[in-house]
Amino acid sequence: MMRLGNFRATDWVLTGTAVLLVLLGMAMVLSTTSDKDLVSARLVRQMLAAVLGLGAYTAVSLFPYHRWRRYVPLIFAASVAALFATSQIAPIIRGTASRLQIGGGLQVQPSEFVKISIVCILAWYFAGRPATGKTIVVSGLLTTLAAGLIILEPDLGAAALLVGAWAGLIIYLGVPWRTISILAAIAAIAALAAWQTSLADYQKQRVLTFLNPAADPLGAGYNVTQSLVALGSGGLFGRGLGHGPQSQLNFLPEQHTDFIVASIGEELGFIGIILLLALYSVLLWRIYAIARETGDPFGKYLAVGVYLLLLGGLFINAGMNMGLLPVTGIPLPLVSYGGSSLVSTFILLGIVQSVRMHSTWVRTPPKELEYVA
């Protein structure tokens, strides 16, 4: 029997904020694409992805999250298998084998959907378990399995995002800070070893450029230099949509994906950046509020995991746009152009909405949350 009270529990602020971020992203895709033939194709694809994403968001929201809990290990195994297949058969595009061709010129990026499975498997594993050494090791191995396959593509940014979400979850789990310090030291040693043995020359160059972008402004430091120029030229109110020279003249690379924050700063100015951060703040506030209020550990860790992924995506993307982090190719969730990123983010938000609609509550819920037969 349908529980109408669950539908009434929908967090419309969460939904509305997500839609506003998507609309902002579409406006920037339309504005920053100077090729009029290309802009139509990009806008249509992004609109189709938004419709598909909203449909998935609605379906996931309405389906009680605890009903698929038992299938989480299978979901994770399938996503890992998809990652392995991608590393073996995907064509090399811009130096990475991260996209599968599905026909009609469309591509899917499995690493975007692995974000969903890693949140689910960690929430499934952490629920009801204490913060012991075994819990840390097992969850770390699960994360390393997924992150390691992503590194093989190679996509260090996406791998770092997964590891960051895991680290945030074990802190939330209540792992002692002494243990966290030991893990941080191990991570530092592993990073040093990777630098010496695993990183390609162009990946090392990105890190060195981050430390001193002015050393090679026309080469390795070009992207960051142009991003900073775009951000600095926007002023308070920006140059106006479609009037940013860095974006319109293609001085700013990937202005509709990796460097969309710089495009917003150039065309909408400081006010546009504040609007972007305000919308993200509201979105993250609603996700955290849902995590805090639910009494179900599985639902709580699901919401916290989504919170950490979105916060990490914002932090990494904005950081590389401002020259504060190395360029990694992480899109800005809901805003950057890209169908896989948009659909997977909507699914993540649908999981949070499902927790809101179908969870037990720590505090007495408002009257509209009561079940109606």
TrEMBL record:
Q: Name one GO molecular function term.
A: lipid-linked peptidoglycan transporter activity
Query: Cross-referenced InterPro entries, in alphabetical order?
Result: Cell_cycle_FtsW-rel_CS, FtsW/RodA, RodA/MrdB
**GO biological process: any one?**
cell division
Q: Which residues are listed as membrane-spanning?
A: 12-31, 43-64, 71-93, 113-128, 135-152, 158-175, 182-200, 268-289, 301-320, 332-352
What Pfam families has UniProt attached to this entry? FTSW_RODA_SPOVE
Q: Which keywords fit this entry according to its UniProt record?
A: Cell shape, Membrane, Transmembrane, Transmembrane helix
Location(s) in or outside the cell = Membrane
Cellular component, GO, one term: cell division site
Topology versus the membrane: Multi-pass membrane protein
Q: Which NCBIfam families match?
A: rodA_shape (TIGR02210)
| Protein name as it appears in the record | Rod shape-determining protein RodA
What is the species listed in this Swiss-Prot or TrEMBL entry? Candidatus Andersenbacteria bacterium CG10_big_fil_rev_8_21_14_0_10_54_11
